[in-house]
UniProtKB/TrEMBL annotation:
Alphabetical list of Pfam families matching this protein: Barstar
InterPro entries recorded: Barstar (IPR000468), Barstar-like_sf (IPR035905)
Annotated signal sequence range: none
Top-rank taxon: Bacteria
Designated name of the protein: Barstar (barnase inhibitor) domain-containing protein
Length: 101
């Protein structure tokens, strides 16, 4: 029996200054090949990474994994990031927040 290996699109944003949602959208737009008309909001992001059919680069992979530092937007307790983090809930995407040493 052959088992299909999941392909992953890994976007490593560690070391980048991501202080706001706009910084996050700027960082993932090129890496994920988001279309110019992408909505730059958490609802549009959720549709893109969960429902699919919006972005060929993401759709070409089974799983999207985004690595970020626990700083700025992704600092503990940042309310602005809560909705963004919840968009990653699901089998097709993961947000990995790395503690700074």
């Amino acid at each position: 029996m052959t088992k299909k290996t999941q392909s992953q699109l890994v976007v490593d944003l560690q070391g980048q200054s991501i202080e706001t949602l706009d910084d996050f959208w700027d960082a993932v737009t090129g890496a994920c090949g988001l279309p110019q008309w992408f909505g730059r909001n958490t609802e549009a992001w959720r549709d893109t990474i969960q429902a699919r059919g919006i972005c060929e680069v993401i759709d070409h992979h089974d799983v999207l994994v985004v690595h970020v530092d626990q700083h700025g937007l992704f600092a503990a307790g940042n309310r602005e990031a809560r909705a963004l983090r919840s968009a990653f809930a699901g089998r097709q995407s993961r947000l990995v927040v790395h503690e700074l040493s």
